[in-house]
Structures are given as structure tokens and as C-alpha cells.
Amino acid sequence: MISILSAKFRLFLRNPWMVIIMSIVCIVMASVIGASSEKRIKVPVVSTLASHETNELLQSLNKSPSFRFELMEKSKMRTLVEEGKVEAGVELSNHDFTLIITSQTGNTFFLRQYVQKVYSEKEQANAIATQAHIPVEKAINIVNEAKEHPAFTVKTMNFRGKHAVTIDSQLQPIFGFSLFFVIYTVAFQVLQLLKEKREGVWNRMILSRLKKWEIYTGNLLYSFMIGYLQIVLIFSVFRFGLGIRFHGQFAELLVLLVPYVFSLVAFSMLLVGLVKNEQQFQALISLLAVSMAMIGGAYWPLEIVSSNVLLALSKIVPLTYGMELLKGAAVYGRSITELLYPMSILFFMGVVFMGIGINLVERKNG
Amino acid sequence: MLEAVELTKQFKQMKAVNRVNLYLEQGEIVGLLGPNGAGKSTTISMLSTLIPPSSGDVRFHQKSILKNPAMLRNVLGIVPQEIALYSDLSAKENLWFFGRIHRLSGVQLQKKVEEILELIGLTDRQNDLVKHFSGGMKRRLNIGAALLHEPKLLIMDEPTVGIDPQSRNYILETVKRLNEEKQMTVLYTSHYMEEVEFLCNRIYIMDKGCIIASGTTAEIKNILSAEHTVEIKVEKLNESFLHALRTQPVVRHIAIQDRVITMLSPKEVNVFRLLFQLAEQTDTVLTSIEMKTPTLEDVFLHLTGRALRD
């Protein structure tokens, strides 16, 4: 089995481009679609402060999940507000700010509160720095550290109904496209099995000292590893390259990918058992991958689908459960124990697909 | 050593192999000869335990291997018709892989790989990727991959298809050497008569799934001891000349290739006079007429009415 794995990885290193290109396309598409579904409210900003102070303040302001502050010329800001293209503008000065609005709305109320909060924190840090004769940056660090280890914490909980829906427009395309593209990667690795059969390498292995289970395990484990590595790579680019925090569930997500990738390997094995040649496999996987992505909620969240037929179909697609696992952990904050149901469905699918697939392949050999 | 008893393989409605009986003794080279689609590959797939027969038995040292194929597999080397190699690996890496799946490792594997590279003449190209090899080099490596575990029995399925004469000779010489030096038993399938004549001690001729003749080369050629092979070259093929030939009771089994007509006729008949007569009647210009001792090709023609490469 080790000999198969080592040969396969050597072959992969000789020609890794398919996996790399798939990963790049996935990252680009998820980024573009994630960025285009930006939900933060744009707030134009003008400043009378020095540029470094303005930048520091903007950095603090832009930590908001609801508002996106954008520096511009005063005249441009006024035009935007006057024409009603934005609800409000902010004029930053040293110890205070001015909100420029045409009418009072709910958003302007929250905006005022938020900017006020950022200014208070800045003033607090300045006061500590002056009192303790330390630089402002050090004072900010002390405040942040104190916040991370508070004397006591207040935990807030709320009731959420069974049908309560949260859609994270940034994570949805990342999860969706990753799970979609990996179908191709895994399928094309498993497809090598058909190629090896056609070329006679498979027969050489059958006639060798290897046990049949070793041949299957070597081939399928390799396909699993390549598929899994691809998603880890994509998630890592988003986590460490683009700063997407996955709501602090990065490690859990990597664990939750295991049953999904396993079910894909098994699904591909089933297809190998069903088709007669590589061309048929390629045609079938292209069709099925896109269908699974649509039905399973990779392109759009299943939460917005109302058709009972589509929802019923989604129950037989591994991608549905893959999305359920990832969103369950990252968006809904569910623990691994709470996600045992979709995990076990994926394992069950995997075992059934694999069993039928291997059986069909063996029958063909006879 | 290896024996096929009433071996039959049926694919749906088609009987690819029909009640084939053959045997191989230790240390001999046996040829399995037949045209494309004769059932040679299916027969060797069954003999090598890759596919189970529909009926019949395969025995290795008198024991059936249908239930326990490992007994044969451990001493069997197979050279498939396809190039069963990883084209994105080098020659050396391929041999390492095929050695490791036969549980060779360390110094033993390294030595064996070097020895095989030497044997197949690819030592200086060992680090090149197989996809950059010529057809002949790929075929040689295809053979090398079957020899790593020192098999006692080597089954070769048309190992010289589509290669240049130089590589072909190299392969034939290598097979002969393996047989002579290592007493390796070889089952060699081919549709090239001259290869089988050169290599094999005994021959089985197959057509349409059945063995139609068997024996040593001399014994098989004896089938035609009462006949001549006549090769007629004409300036231009003429349908009426061919028709006239076909209607002659003394002319048997006509095969045509380009402007060459090959036919069989009894030794006691003087065909020259007949041929000149027919040529004159049908306005055909004869370039040459040659009487030949029968070859295996002629035997095949005699037995089936078709040329081997039809």
C-alpha cells in the first residue's frame, strides 16, 4: 500500500497543476462572490487630523461588522449625503467628530453610538498614557489585555427557533465553492483507477504480492488525501492570507471535512463501477457535480430554497451534509456532538457507495 | 507445469474461448499463434488468473489454481499487450514501483533494478520519463517490469506489436536468453509467424476461440507436406484472373496482398502451365511465380482459409 501511495504522490508532484488550478479558481470565485455580497453600510469620512492619526482611527472604525468607513474629499462627501446616496458622513477631528446627515434614521443613531464608542476608547487610552507617562500604543495594549481577561464576564443567550436562519454571505461562497471544486479533484484522482485498468497497470498489481484491499486502499486513500489537502489549502489561504476567521472554528472545520471527502471518494468509486470507460466517467461527473452543487446548496444557501422537491432531492446529495457540517460549526456555532447526524449520514453514504462501487468493479473483472 | 483443461470463456452471446486444451512443460517456450480476435488474450488472461473461466480448469503442477491463484501468481510474470507503465515516472522509478509491489526492498531491490535495466538495455536512459521513450524502449521496459521478481513462468501477450525491427530483435534475443540462461518457461502469443518460428519449441494455433493445430514447428509444417505454396506477382490485379484461379479445383486458399497472390496447390500438379494459360486468357501480366516450402503462415491459410493478419 505504501508503494502505491509513494508512486501516486510522485506522479502528483510531476503534474500538480490540475489541483493548483482548481484551488486558484475556487479561491478567486469565492473571494469575488464573497466581496460582491458585502453587507456593511458605506460611510464617507473626512478628517482634519494628521494622516497617520486618521489612518489609525479609520482602522479602529473599520473593525465594525456593520459600517465601512471610506476617506474622501469633503465636497464629495457632502454631495453623497445631499443626494441621499449615503445616509450619513463623518467629519473626524482631534477629540470629537461631527455627523453630517439629512435626516435622522435608525442607522444614523447606531452610527453615532458606534463612532462615539471608538472615540471613548481612544480618549481612554490617551488618558492612561498621560497619567502613567507611557506611550499611547502601550496604553492601548494594556486596555486590550484587560478586556481579554476581565474581572467578570456576562454571557448573553437568546432563543433561536428551529427554523431560524443565519446566512453568512462571506462564508457561504467559500464553503460552497470549496466543496464543489473538490468533487472534481477527488473524482479525477479516483478516475486514475480506470486508466490503470485500461493500461494494464492494475493487472500487474493484481498479480503482484499486494492484497486486493491494499490496492484499493492505496488508490482511494491517495484520492482522499489529495481532496482533503486541496480544501485545507483553500481554507488556509482564506484564514491566513485573507484574514477570514471562520468565527474561530477553523480547526473544527478541518475535522468536519473528513466525512465529506470520504463520501466523495466513495461516490467516485461508485461511478467507476457504473461506467464503462473514462469518457463516460468524465461526462457523468461533470453533470453530477454541477447538479449536486445546485441541489446541495453550494451556489446558494438551501435556507432560501422553498421547493419541497429540491429540498427532498438535497437529502440524497453528500454536498448538502457537507455544507450543513461547515455552516453548523462556523455560522451556527454548533459543537461536533451536535453535528453527529450529518457526519453519520456522510459516513453511511460513503460505506454504501464504496461497497456497491467495489462490488461492481470486481464483477466487471469477472 | 501449467495446463489448460477444456478452458471456455463466454461473454454474453459470444464464446471468446471454446474448450481450449494446452500445456506448458518446465523450461520450454510455447507459442500461441492466431490472428487478432482469435481469443489469445482471453486465454492468457484466464491462464494468468486475471479472469475466471466460464468452464474448464487451469492447473499448475497438477493443482487447480481457480480457488487458490496465489500459488501461480507468485511465480508468474506477465507482459501485457498494452504498455502497462506509469508514463510520468522514469524507467528506474517504474521498476522500483513494480519491484516493491512484489515485496522487494532495500539492496535486493536496487540490485534487481540495475540488473533488469542492464538486461533490457536502458541503463543509460534510466532517469528519463517513460513518456519520452520510443515505442521499442517502452516495450523493453514493459518486459523488464515483469522480470523483477524472477518469475519461473513468463506469459507474453504480443510483446513486439508496433515496434521497429531492431527493438523487435532485441526483445526476441532477450526472451531466448532468459529461457536458456534462467530456464524460464515462456508462453508467447503473437500473430507474427517468424517470431514464433524463431522462439518456440512448440506451437498452438488458435482461431475463432479454438485450438486448430498444435505441435512442434516441423510437425505443424508437415500438415502441408503434400502441398506447395505458390506466390504469384502480377503487374496489375485483375478480377477475372482471380476468378479463374478460384474456379480451378487444384488451387486452394487464395490470399491477396497488394499485387501478390499466394495460393496452395498439390505438389504433383504442374501449376506453371495452368497459370500461364489463365494469364493469357484474362490478359494478366505475370511478373514472377515462386514456389515455396510451406511456412506457418501457409499452414494457417490452409487450416482457416484466411491469412494470419487478415
From TrEMBL, chain A:
Keyword Transmembrane helix assigned: yes
Keyword Transcription among UniProt keywords: no
A single cellular component GO annotation: membrane
Keywords: Membrane, Transmembrane, Transmembrane helix
Transmembrane parts of this sequence: 12-33, 174-194, 215-238, 250-272, 284-302, 339-361
Membrane topology note: Multi-pass membrane protein
Main location: membrane
Gene Ontology terms, MF aspect: ABC-type transporter activity
Annotated compartments: Membrane
Domain ABC transmembrane type-2 stretches: 136-364
Name of protein: ABC-2 type transport system permease protein
Species: Anoxybacteroides voinovskiense
Upper taxonomic lineage: Bacteria, Bacillati, Bacillota, Bacilli, Bacillales
From TrEMBL, chain B:
Keyword Nucleotide-binding: yes
Protein name according to UniProt: ABC-2 type transport system ATP-binding protein
Pfam family, one: ABC_tran
Segments forming domain ABC transporter: 2-233
Organism listed in the record: Anoxybacteroides voinovskiense
Cross-referenced InterPro entries: AAA+_ATPase (IPR003593), ABC_transporter-like_ATP-bd (IPR003439), ABC_transporter-like_CS (IPR017871), P-loop_NTPase (IPR027417)
Entry GO MF terms: ATP binding; ATP hydrolysis activity
Nucleotide-binding recorded as keyword: yes
Entry keyword set: ATP-binding, Nucleotide-binding
